[in-house]
Design a protein that fits this description.
This protein is of the alpha/beta class. It is built from 15 helices and 20 strands. The relative contact order is 0.11.
């Protein structure tokens, strides 16, 4: 546009507020578009190669024949990062194999059942040994196959990502890069470096002790519970007994070889249960204890639902007596167990109550107790709360409960007033410690009391410092405080309350100390019905102790019943013994423990018996 002499030039007026806002919005959109473009390019560069590798692993399994049995070996990426042996009867999984999200899965295909049965029944240990040897000989070929298809899938994914990138550039009308091949070579080199780094991490994270942790699912897991009943079930309802016997026998023989390599023979079997909450599951406990020749049951409390003793009906107590008539039980009171419930439990033959819970004017006092059981020193401390109790003694809020639990442990184990022990030695049923240090419970349970120290230690040298093999409590927070107070004097703590087993990697720390949190053996019982919560699985564990008193391994079970009526109706409690009540809802995990530093001259044996419970700690 030309301007004539005398025309007035337009003045450069500043942009309005709206124009500035539109300009900023436009710049933001441009930046977001560029960022999104970069992100999408890298997502394609990373995701497509990984998807290609995962697809190749799934599409092209390795096929092998071992001892006449055809097997399929398939790799997986991200979807199932475990080493597993899969059958139609369930799976045997080893989750702690390598730190990469990579899995290897071995499964038989087109199996001739009669051929397996004949081969296995003749000489099962020899058959398993030949099976292992033949399979080990093929491991290099299997590894090469899986690696090759992983790399091929990765290369195909990279090629697809490059093709998509070039197509997008073409559609946008951008010219071809003059050094396209060099650019793609650099990308391929970067991918190679990333793959090398991942490979190094895989080598570093490989766990040579991966066999120390495993889990079984389906009928393989159910067979660990009740092999006789399961066998009968399959005999009556199908023709699959030969399959079951062969597969379970092979798995059991392989498991026994792992155990022979990892652990000495057990001298004791200890069953851990918790949080029955009035569920009619003691027939299950009895059957399980008989199957595994359990020598001792440790029950970490919450027998009731609301606390009063009349909750424990005659039928419920009869089922409990049937268990303890065969297997002795050590029991500590939980937060759903009142002092009256504790007295009922003391009256059950075969039950030894550890510690004591007594009512006070403003709450409850608890004290610890101790027994010598089969060569192990086992202590226990009740939960200081009771459901519906006053103030902090009936609270659920963690900000209130945790300081109370820590303070109760400190008062019970440090014994601030040494005369408290002497005054109650003659009557274990009334053993008590001093009331809370601040002397004032919280009125409504919503405000925490003065917080107890979480790093307290026992400084009074006059107090008995007997090393404890097992310390039973109800609250995991209390178990944590016990470790703080007693430091290295406790080898294993067991608690419950959470209705959930702690994970396998939390069981043993770097110093060898074992922390066991048991789930609910009553599947939450009436407690979950009242709260309107989904039922957790029926959970329990069995630990194995060697003749030298080492905790060698633990088997942990989780069962989700198909019919929850068996949990609360004593009339149908017997049904829980049948395998069909479990189906594929059974999981059995095995974890091996590292040896702990203990006196080499110790001996554990059932012939050593169980002593009377006594207050603990005691003064010299």
């Amino acid at each position: 546009m030309s301007h004539q002499p005398g025309d007035q030039l337009p003045l450069p007026f500043p942009p309005t507020r709206g124009e500035r806002a539109r300009q900023r919005l436009g710049r933001a959109r441009d930046v977001a578009a560029r960022v999104l473009s970069v992100v999408m390019r890298w997502v394609l560069r990373i995701a497509l190669p990984l998807l290609g590798a995962a697809a190749a692993l799934q599409a092209f399994p390795y096929h092998a024949t071992v001892q006449g049995i055809p097997f399929e070996v398939q790799g997986s990426l991200f979807s199932r990062p475990v080493l597993s042996a899969d059958t139609t009867l369930g799976s045997w999984e080893f989750p702690d194999f390598v730190g990469l999200p990579f899995g290897v899965h071995i499964s038989p295909e087109d199996v001739d059942v009669l051929q397996i049965t004949r081969a296995a029944e003749g000489n099962l240990p020899a058959f398993v040994e030949r099976l292992q040897a033949d399979f080990a000989a093929q491991v290099p070929r299997i590894a090469t196959w899986l690696l090759a298809e992983f790399l091929i899938g990765l290369a195909v994914g990279l090629a697809v990502a490059a093709a998509i990138n070039m197509s997008v550039r073409y559609l946008r009308g951008r010219p071809r890069r003059p050094s396209e091949l060099r650019y793609r070579a650099r990308q391929l080199g970067a991918a190679g470096l990333a793959l090398a780094a991942v490979t190094v991490y895989g080598v570093v994270s490989y766990n040579p002790d991966w066999v120390r942790e495993s889990r079984l699912t389906g009928s393989l897991a159910a067979a660990q519970l009740f092999p006789d009943q399961l066998s009968q079930y399959y005999t009556q309802r199908s023709k699959a007994l030969d399959v079951l016997g062969s597969i379970v026998g092979i798995q059991a023989e392989l498991q026994s070889q792992v155990e022979d390599d990892q652990t000495p023979q057990p001298a004791l079997q200890i069953m851990y249960i918790s949080d029955m909450h009035l569920a009619a599951n003691y027939p299950l406990v009895a059957q399980y204890a008989a199957t595994y020749d359990v020598d001792l049951i440790i029950n970490t409390g919450d027998e009731g639902a609301f606390g009063p003793a009349f909750e424990l009906t005659p039928g419920y107590l009869d089922a409990l007596r049937a268990v303890t008539a065969e297997t002795p039980m050590l029991w500590v009171a939980g937060n759903h167990d009142s002092p009256e419930t504790e007295q009922v439990m003391r009256s059950i033959p075969g039950v030894t109550v550890l510690g004591s819970k007594t009512a006070t004017s403003d709450g409850f006092d608890v004290s610890a107790g101790l027994v010598d059981a089969f060569g192990l020193t086992i202590a226990g401390l009740p939960d200081p709360r009771v459901y519906g109790g006053p103030g902090e003694y009936g609270a659920d809020a963690p900000s209130v409960v945790e300081p109370l639990q820590r303070r109760a442990v400190q008062e019970a184990l440090e014994v601030a007033d040494p005369t408290a022990v002497a005054a109650t030695t003659d009557d274990p049923a009334t053993t008590a410690t001093a009331p809370p240090a601040d002397g004032s419970p919280v009125a409504d349970g919503s405000q925490p009391p003065p917080e107890a120290s979480s790093t307290a230690t026992r400084t009074d040298e006059a107090i008995d410092t007997t090393p404890i093999d097992v310390f039973a409590l109800h609250e995991p927070v209390a178990a944590e405080e016990v470790r703080e107070v007693l430091e290295n004097d406790v080898r294993l703590t067991v608690s419950g309350h959470t209705h959930q087993q702690n994970s396998s990697d939390e069981l043993q720390d770097g110093d060898g100390a074992i922390t066991l949190v048991e789930g609910s053996t009553g599947a939450g019982g009436l407690d979950n019905i009242v709260r309107g919560q989904d039922r957790p699985p029926i959970s329990f564990s069995i630990g194995f102790v060697s003749e030298a008193c080492q905790f060698t391994r633990i088997m942990r079970f989780q069962i989700t019943p198909q019919d929850t009526a068996v949990l609360t109706d004593p009339a149908t409690a017997a049904d829980v013994q049948a395998p069909e009540a479990f189906g594929d809802d059974v999981t059995a995990s095995t974890v091996f423990f590292r040896p702990q530093q203990i006196d080499p001259d110790r001996t554990c044996d059932v012939d050593l018996g169980i002593s009377d419970e006594r207050p603990w700690p005691t003064t010299d």
